[in-house]
Every structure is written in C-alpha cells, then in structure tokens.
Amino acid sequence: MAYAPHRREARSSRIGQAVRRAREHSAVRGYRAAAAAIGRIPTRLSLPVGKALLVGSYFAWPTKRRIILANASHVLQLPASDRRVRHLARRIYATYAQFIIELMRLPRLPASEPARLVRGAANQGDESFFALFERYRAEGRGMIVVSAHIGSIDMMAGSMAYRGLPCYGVADDSAYPELFEAINEQRRRWGIQVIPWKNLRRTFKALRDGGIVGLVVDWGYRAEDVPVKLFGEWATLPAGPVMLAARTNAPIVPDTYKDIATNISTSCSGLRPGVTWTAGVIPTGAAVKTVSKTGYTEYHICGDLTVTGSGYLTGSAPASDSVIIIENGSLSVANNAAVNTSRTAIVFTGDNNWPAQVNFPIARSFIQSGADMAHIPISPPMRPWPEVTGHE
What we know:
The protein is of the alpha/beta class and 392 residues long. It folds into 3 domains: 11-108, no CATH class; 113-254, no CATH class; 275-391, no CATH class. It has helices at 14-40, 43-60, 62-76, 83-105, 113-117, 126-138, 153-162, 177-190, 200-208, 240-248; strands at residues 143-147, 167-171, 193-196, 212-216, 226-230, 233-237, 252-254, 275-278, 288-293, 296-302, 305-308, 310-312, 321-327, 331-333, 338-340, 344-349, 358-359, 366-368, 371-374, 388-391. α1 packs parallel to α8 (177-190) and α3 (62-76) packs across α4.
C-alpha cells in the first residue's frame, strides 16, 4: 500500500535491476530489524524517537517539505511562512510516524490486538459497520471501503477481519514485491486477503461473493481520474472504486480510523489532590479539569481516581464519547462498585514522578462495557474484569 501503481519505476537495465533488488533486500532487512526492535521497546520511548526521525526528514527533504507546506497553506488559507502552517506540516510527519510505529509493533502482539484496540460508538463505529455489512450481504452485495492514509488503516482492517468479516485489500505489489510480502504476512494473521492491484478478476469475485474490498484513494492528481473539489480546489480521486461499484452494484463506503487518546496534553500543573467519582455524578472542583473537544470531552483527574457506586460513570447511556485522563495518579475501584464505562476511554499520563497502578478488589466490584485504559501496563497480569483492556 505504500507505493501507488502510477508511480512505480520504469524498466531499467540489468545493472539497474540488480541495484533495485539490492535496495529492496536492504529495505526488507531494515524493516524487519526495525520492527523487531520497536516491538520490544515501549511506545513511550519508541514513539518520540519515531516522530523525531520523521520530523527530521521533513527538514532534510526540501522537495517534499515544499509540497507539504503548500498543501497545509491551502487548507489553512494562510501563507506558507506562517508558523501555524509550518506547525501543521510538522504534525503531519509526526502523525505518520505514529502510523509506522503501530504497524511495526503489531507483529509481536497477539493476532487479536487490532480487534481489542479498535472500538466505536453504536452510531459511528464498528457496530454500525457490522450492521451495514449484514444489510448489504442480505441483498447479495459486497462493499467497497475507501480510506486514506489517515490513522492506522491496517489496524482498522485487521479489527474487522479478525472478527470474521471477509476483508480484502487491493495493493500494489510491483514496486517492492519482497517488502510487500513481508507486510502481508502480518495482514494474513488477522484474516485480511491481499489482492494485487492488477488482478481485477479476483477483485470482482470478492465483491460478487459479498466481500469487503478496501482501497486507499489518496494517490495524488491524475488527469484521467474523477475530478472532485477538495478545500475549494479541483483535484482528482482514482476512478477504480467508481468503476467497481458500477459493475458490481457494490456501495462505496468511506471509512477512517482515529485514535481518540492521542495528542492529549496535561492540565493539572503537577497538582494531585485526588478525586472520588460516583457513577452518574460527574465530579467538580479544583481536582477535575473539564476540556471540551470536537466530538468528545476530556476529564482531567489531578491525582488518584477512585470510582464507586453503580451505573454509567458519566451519566445515563452516554450519547457522546469521553476520555478520563488520570494525571500522576492511580485508578481504584471501590468495594461493591458496579460501574459501566460505555463510550469512555481511561488514559494515564504524568511527569514520571509518581507511580500509577490499577487497584481492583477481585469479585466484589467490576467495570464493564468497553473501557479502554491506555499508557500503563495493567497489574496484576490476569484481568479479572470483563471488557477492560490495558496497553502502553
């Protein structure tokens, strides 16, 4: 997926082909070595290094930097010299570093990891996607899912395939075939079947059999593709999805993956008085900082958090997402608590001066329904409560 078909290299001499093969072997060995190292290093260490390297390439590659600045300038409607444009350009590189780190870590994690990490709300996440799939399957139709290099598309596809959906990815195998195969080893672990981009017969069959065919459509401008307006200017998107939809009667479904727990900043300024949160009653006071975000709300807990009571933590059947950010503190579940954390992520962060842990009275309390705890290993290793996960 890293190389679009219209940008593959032209045929070259035997010497050129030998150089290309040597370069490919080096790329594959480098990828495998980097993936093995990153899989052993916690993300709190590997991610800053990866971001620093990618942002470094932003400064070291003037041609690409000018393209990114021009695009960011157009989106923000500001001059390329504006600091906000340059900040956005650097963030684009840093975000792509996160995608690469996630992709390289996955081979050393259980095959179920994407399904565990990818969660969604009933009206906009995996549940609605499953409902859509069942609807079209009942009509004898497949689905064409289009996305771009926004978030971890491999994570998203792996989540759906591991849950049993017939997922296919169309990708270019002609640029670096050996690297293509190395990455596809991981995709096959989840159940994704990768179709080389020239194999139209297999693509048509997958759709007519009711499968889900995934296509990445951010290839860049080509005069023969479909004209569309993006941010007020004409651009093009590949004609392939439209052609497939017209010939197979499969709908085109846009899909993106967003990590709701990224780019979180602290708000407590080192204070840690601690908070007791009774289910259904959102706490107030100096130890709780509420930050409204687009599509969700952050609750910053200054110090230790104790949850108690019964019912939904943030109120009756929450209609929006929440992120509870525990700064420099631990999470404790009170005796006899029965707390439902639907549509809520729990994130641990801090300045590395205070240990963080999860304190849970086994068999006398529980958290249920989709809590996602991030940035701290869970202790003890055995999880006695359902639907709560921990990852770094």
